[in-house]
Write a structure and sequence with these properties.
The protein contains 4 helices and 10 strands; from the N terminus they run H-H-E-E-E-E-E-E-E-E-E-H-E-H. With 285 residues, the chain is mainly beta.
């Protein structure tokens, strides 16, 4: 799946990491207290985030359009070592698409299909930071990369006569697909270390999938005459709503050679509980 925002983010990361490294090196030779030499950080961190989610699939002709919708996240992070962490996160995100939002001169505008989905995602990802945030010379800004696996619900709906209808049970293309699907998050972020306990990060993560049915559009028309359910018949081919004739069985409805995907971009707040070793407590007494 082509995606044009990632090169921009890489450029930002390179610039920020260069500045951060210069400031990071300044403090290496500074005097170190006994307290600073000890590990004051816990093993587990807690995160919460909010941002936007964007869909990429058969109903979007221009991949540069975001069509941003809301998303939220809650996560638990485990520290493996000073640069590598693992995080599990549950997210709610909304995605949507519509042929009518594309250029009227494209071949998909007259198809007149649309969808919206409110999905949940559970993932497990690894985070590899450029710098060691626990060092004496704490880096103010710390770029990182993410990659992992996850599961997402898949609940596309269409608005018809003022009501939202679930599309998956209708089998609008005569094909069944699962309500839960695997996803593979990859992306990058920039963490700003505010103090010992609090970080704020900007993170961008694209989700690759092995499905073309996030939008309920993938293969060919089944033909309206082959549906007994009037709702399935109406939502399988919505060209008649534009005064056009329905297309016969076998005509192209979507592009099954290109899987759907989605992007989640947002701000995260990360809390790290302080853990003071017993040796430091004895010294402080």
């Amino acid at each position: 799946m082509k995606f044009s925002v990632i090169p921009v983010l890489i450029g930002i990361l390179v610039s920020v990491s260069t500045i951060a490294e210069a400031q990071f090196r300044k403090g290496i030779d500074e005097p170190v207290s006994v307290y600073q030499r000890k590990n004051r950080h816990g093993t587990f961190f807690y995160s919460a985030g909010f941002g936007i989610s964007s869909y990429f699939g058969d109903l979007k002709d221009d991949r540069k359009q975001l069509w941003a919708k809301p998303s939220t996240q809650l996560g638990l992070q485990y520290r493996v070592n000073d640069r590598l962490h693992f995080r599990t996160e549950i997210s709610w995100y909304r995605i949507s698409g519509a042929d009518s939002l594309n250029d009227p001169n494209t071949g998909i505008y007259d198809r007149n299909l649309s969808f919206r989905a409110d999905n949940f995602e559970l993932n497990l990802v690894g985070l590899l930071h450029l710098f060691n945030k626990y060092s004496i010379a704490k880096p103010p800004v710390n770029p990182y990369l993410i990659a992992g696996v996850g599961l997402t619900t898949n609940t596309p709906k269409a608005n018809y006569n003022g009501e939202w209808h679930k599309l998956r049970p209708l089998k609008t293309e005569g094909t069944s697909y699962s309500a839960v699907m695997p996803v593979f998050p990859v992306g990058a972020g920039i963490a700003v270390h505010l103090n010992t306990n609090w970080d704020i990060s900007l993170e961008l993560g694209y989700r690759f999938t092995f499905t073309d049915y996030l939008d309920d559009v993938s293969t060919t028309y089944r033909g309206v005459e082959n549906f007994e359910d009037p709702l399935a018949r109406a939502l399988s081919d919505r060209r008649p709503e534009m005064g056009l004739n329905p297309l016969p069985n076998g005509n192209r409805r979507g592009n099954s050679t290109d899987f759907d995907g989605y992007l989640i971009t947002g701000i995260k707040v990360v809390y790290t509980p302080t853990r003071i070793p017993e040796e430091v407590l004895r010294i402080q007494k």
